[in-house]
Amino acid sequence: MKAINRRRFLSRSTASVALSPVALKAADNQAARRTTARPLVVSTWPFGKAANEKALAVIAGGGSTLDGIEQGVGLTESSGNRSVGLTGIPNAAGVVQQDACLMWGPGHQAGSVCAIEGAVHPISAARRVMEQTKHVMLAGKGARWFAEQQGLETVPVEAHLAKYEAWLKDTQVPAAQGDGKEEENHDTIALLVLDKEGNLGGGCSTSGWGGKLPGRVGDSPILGGGLYVDNEVGAAGATGLGENVMRYCGSFMVVEYMRQGLDPEAACVATIERIAKTDPRGLDLKINFVALDKQGRYGAAGSGNGFSYSVTTQSVSGVLKSASLSDLNVGPIGGNRFED
Ligand code: GLY
User: How far is 30 from 132, CA to CA, in rounded Å?
Assistant: First the structure.
């Protein structure tokens, strides 16, 4: 597969939303980020590229789009990642608690698990919640019990306090109490697909904030927070400090901006700007969004220096740099506290 070259074309968004200069710049570049190729897979971070390619291979091999999403995200979950899968940084009790969700455009279906322990593939548990229950979200012990009932792979839950303590020593300050190196610990995979039938779906998985308080749930399993899919409009996913995404229904907001006419990158920029307008931290948020619309346009934006995201079709697969909204490197902390 050849690498994607990010070429810049000039075109104006048809949006009726008032755009800041940054959002206008994002809209200007959108024509280069559009393809008629289907399936089109877009995901967060450079490690998303392998997940995208896995999703595409599963679909090309006769699997459904949901199979592709599940197995693509599943690949990252078992790749040894520091913040996706059981290899993630444990919480303050030394246990890895994971969050995941999956959403499918047709029928507006969704499934989610949060604070699940010992699940090898939380994304699979989320899919089973969607397909096998009348519920949308299962939490903690109940989520693990359900995964076991479904025959999904689980491992004994063990507290790896030494791993937590090593992480703590490295970061000096516990993230749950202050300003640890959270930028290293928020590498959620959010993977979005536009398939050959024109349907949209997505999946999201993370072990969350390293050193988090036990029971802390981030944005990733929250529909409209870490992931949102609207089959009429588009899909969006988030990575970064969940506390700064979930208070604003971030992914839902991105999709709603696309509904109003913004292209995906401009919608991500507009969402971050709107959050920054309300939040006492301003742009110092450490939040990032990736988005894909029904027309095959894609884009991403992040606070601070932004982030990298992956885009894959049958003929090209590559990593692109998102739009960025300031030169701040990292948000200090998430949640309701903003001075320490
Ligand atoms: N965005 C992942 C988390 O905050 O847990």
Answer: 39
Question: What is d(CA 203, CA 228) in angstroms, rounded to the nearest whole number?
Answer: 9
Which residue has tokens 């894959």?
312
pTM, to two decimals:
0.89
Residue 51 and residue 73 in contact, taking contact as beta carbons nearer than 8 Å: yes
* CA 242 to ligand 1: nearest atom: 4
Of 296, 300, 292, 293, nearest to 321 by C-alpha is 300
Distance of alpha carbon 222 from alpha carbon 45, whole angstroms? 20
101 vs 167: CA distance, rounded Å: 26
Residue-wise pLDDT for 16-34, tens only, equals 566 677 776 666 677 789 9
Ligand 1 centroid distance, CA of 185 (Å): 8
Domain 20-324 class? alpha beta
Nearest alpha carbon, ligand 1 atom 5:
208
Q: How many CA atoms lie within 13 A of 229 on its CB side?
A: 25
Q: How confident is the model at residue 180 (pLDDT cuts 50, 70, 90)?
A: very low
Residue type, 279: D
Measure 145 CA to ligand 1 centroid, in angstroms. 23
Type of residue numbered 209: W
Known catalytic membership, residue 206 = no
Predicted confidence (pLDDT) per residue in 313-329, tens digit: 999 999 999 999 886 65
